[in-house]
Amino acid sequence: MAGDSIFPAQTAQQLSTKVQSGECTARQLTGKVLAHIRATDNSINAYITVDEEGACQQADLIDKKIASGQSVGPLAGIPIGIKDVLCTKGLRTTCASKILDNFIPPYDATVITRLRNADAIILGKLNMDEFAMGSSNENSSFGTVKNPHDHTRVAGGSSGGSAAAVASEEAFMTLGSDTGGSIRQPASFCGTVGLKPTYGRVSRYGLIAYASSLDQVGPLTRNVEDAALLLNVIAGHDPSDSTSANEPVPNYTADLDKGVEGLTIGIPKEYFADGLEDDVRQAVMAGIASLEKNGAKIREISIPTAGHAAYTIAAYYIIATAEASSNLSRFDGVKYGFRAEASNLTEMYTQSRSQGFGAEVKRRIMLGTYALSAGYYDAYYRKAQQVRTLIKQDFDNAFSSCDLLASPVSPTPAFKIGEKTDDPLQMYLSDIYTVSVNLAGIPGISVPCGKSSEGLPIGLQLLGNTFSEHTLLQAAHVIEREHAS
Amino acid sequence: MNYEPVIGLEVHAQLATNTKIFCGCSPEFGGEPNTHVCPVCLGLPGALPVLNQQVVEMAIRIALAVGCTIQPRSRFLRKNYFYPDLPKGYQVSQFQSNEEMPLATGGGIEVPTANGDMKTITLTRIHMEEDAGKSIHEESFVASGESLVDVNRCGVPLIEIVSEPDISTSEEAFHYITRLHQMLVYTGVSEGDMEKGHMRIDANVSIRPVGTTELGTKVEVKNVNSFRNCQRAIDIEIERQIALLETGGTIQQATMLYDPDRNQLRPMRTKEDSDDYRYFPDPDLVPVVVDDAWVDRVREQVPELPEAKKKRFAESFDISPEQIEELTASRERAEYFEATIEAGAEAKPAANWIQNNEIKIPAEALADLLGLMKEGTISSNIARKVFDEMADTGESAQAIVEKQGLVQISDTSELDGIVDEIIANSPSEVERYQGGDKKLVGFFMGQIMKATKGQANPQMVNQILREKLG
User: Fold this and answer.
1) What's chain B's average pLDDT?
2) H or E element: which one contains A67?
């Protein structure tokens, strides 16, 4: 980060070493970040809930452990922000929605348990588009998140708070979730690293579901090494999640500087067609050139279905909203969350949900309900799933001749607040390079590769075959090194 | 116009698993409301289901017992609707269509028809699903205008067994339910406790002119939760439909609720506004894959079924068909009977005893008791007392008989003496007996039993009385 950093180290490992060696205490570090949040967040709005007391308590516990010579986890003392879509026991979890405004989960999401076991410090819950539905973090009932690089612009979505917090140093690293680009796009807009793991790599238990077959939890960090470290901690099979994979977890931080010598990087020509802003094209091409400079072979490929916005955006918005329409049925005012005054059951349901949900959420629930309804299921949901298979096949083909793919993350850098809110479809189209990745279940990373002429961050997206996160991180590491110099 | 009824039955049976279908909570009936819960069955945000393998095993087991085909691959689907006792706003279930296969299809249950022949009622399918919770509206502890929800039952594993509309009379329906219940309990798949709602029955009833094949409009009859009530409710509905058609009306598709107290049907207020459940495959669960090896393993678990057992009993034991029927009605009884034989008892006395007494002592102990009876050491009256004592204390028959001095008095001279005494003390009764009132033998027996604390050998006493009194 340019300018004075509030942190005495650049990477999580370095920072944790300082805490473990006693150079600074976890409590000092935590106190510093909390003070910075107090001073900064009014202008960024990255946080929904800051847990000062909890964070200080956790910090004290870590310091005590260290002082008594006990071994501590790999994230000891690292202050982390959590997207408010993950359940944290005893700490309010809202999904940025009025309907969960007062919801306090009685349990931790699996990834949270893993963070705690790694001795991380949980600072609080980060702002997001309501129920993870959005691409700008303008759909939050707690207000828009500002891009730290330009407060008149969006931070991206739906993990806007997660990306902004890293960029503004209101957390050292954060967790976000990605269903159609919601980690990668805000990471690109805010100049951070953002990784969406392979579907099933990370447990979804405790992740409040948007689209069950597309959601994944992932890290947003200052650098590639930190993303690898955080992925080490959260990845792995979870018996509580039937969709989590039984794949062993390698040490993602090992051999990060392996380089890209001998790798073939595919460039999907469909992702470099019209609609891509010049600044973005330039920055991404420069990033690809630096991979070539480092020994990678570059090759143009075609992903006809996965590259065709009409197919991918349509398939995504049918499948995601269909699953969401069912996942969000539990928000009915009966057991928890917002319940409207009503004189009968039907009224209670309709009023609680009409008043409790924001406009975009309601839009998507209606879309999804329609796509699943009798007489339309075959034409929409079933058809979309068939298109999904074709998309997966495109990537399978691509990876038979390439090790990785490279593309832009978003057609533009961060746009102005309010610029796309009048036309939801316009907003949906900013996902064209990211949604196919979730539909195929493959991993993708966004790594900063340049700036626009207005000084706005631009990210480069690298895609790999399933469970190829190690290679992705190694390639992203090259980009990072080249971009820094 | 003569009409014939066409009946199909849908039965929801609760599986006797250790935990719920998608989480580790207890599926036990009762319990304080909202205590057998966790994030999963509460449908809390972020919670995810994990399939309990035991559910699949039990479903396969009953499916094999009734001759179904096990589908090698089936999925769970979400059935979406809103109701307060359905926490997630959808029920996880299975479906049958061109694209979706349930766990098991086909199979059949044999029932006797009116003329005594056996007929097979074909099954459409058996599928797995989760139960919903309970809504409590009108109880003393519920405020007016309010309802309470108890989600203990959410996630309890159920199987739904659907029959083809092959049932032709309410009596056949009764037999079908009885047989199905027996199969479920026999295989250990369900405890079948009707009071705990382990079997819930819905009947689909329609009528058509005799001899035609086109199905009439069907009416669903719910809440018939005993076998006889099922039969009664079906009868009422058939009558209602016939009466309606004969007065020129048409049958409307409807759901009727059976009121067991009044033996009446009334139209039910529907829970959901629309019937469109928007089924789609549950993305939180993976498909259920059942390979041949698994089916074979479960096949081993299927016990000897009632029909086979009856046949074997007829070949192996010298007891009447009625006794065989009664003994094999429950697997517990049948196995107890065989264990008693195994321990040395004879078939007929064992059968007689078990028919008339509850299972309260181990089979070996019963064999001992029957042995004492056979030897003549104790009479059947005494045996009953000893039995109760054995049940209470766990002591052996021999020990109790010895301790309490209950050995039957079969010594002729001793009995002679006692009879003489009674005769001497009851001159007027003797006179009346010898005068023709032969019923008084009962009086003498009674006196003798009283004097011997029930231990006199009744056959011998009878003999002696007749000799002495004439």
Assistant:
1) 92
2) helix A52-67
Does the pLDDT of residue A3 top 80, yes or no?
Answer: no
Side chain identity at B32, as an amino acid letter?
E
Residues B357 and B378 sit within 8 Å (Cβ to Cβ): no
CA distance B46 to chain A (A): 4
Name the nearest CA neighbour of A127 among A99, A150, A156.
A156
How many whole angstroms separate alpha carbon A16 and alpha carbon B394? 68
Res B89: pLDDT: 97
Residue B251 per-residue DSSP state? P
Q: Is there a contact between A326 and B43 if contact means CB atoms under 8 Å apart? A: no
CB-based contact B39 A100, cutoff 8 Å? no
A246 CA to centre of own chain: 22
Whole-number average pLDDT of chain A: 96
Query: In which band, very low, low, confident or very high, does the pLDDT at B108 lie, cut at 50, 70 and 90?
Result: very high
pLDDT (tens digit per residue) in B9-57: 999 999 999 999 999 999 999 899 999 999 999 999 999 999 999 999 9
Residue B373, both tokens: 């009876």
B289 touches chain A (CB under 8 A): no
Count helices and strands in chain A by DSSP H and E runs: 15, 13
The C-alpha atoms of residue B469 and residue B242 are separated, in whole angstroms, by: 69
Q: Is residue B284 within 8 angstroms of chain A, CB to CB?
A: yes
Closest-CA residue to A469 (of A230, A131, A190): A230
Give the percent of chain A with pLDDT over 70: 99
CA distance B310 to B291: 32
Contact between A418 and A255 (Cβ < 8 Å): no
Q: What ipTM did this prediction achieve?
A: 0.96
DSSP structure string for A401-440: H-SEEEEESSSSSPPBTTSSTT-HHHHHHTTTTTHHHHHH
How many angstroms separate the CA of residue B352 from the nearest CA in chain A? 53
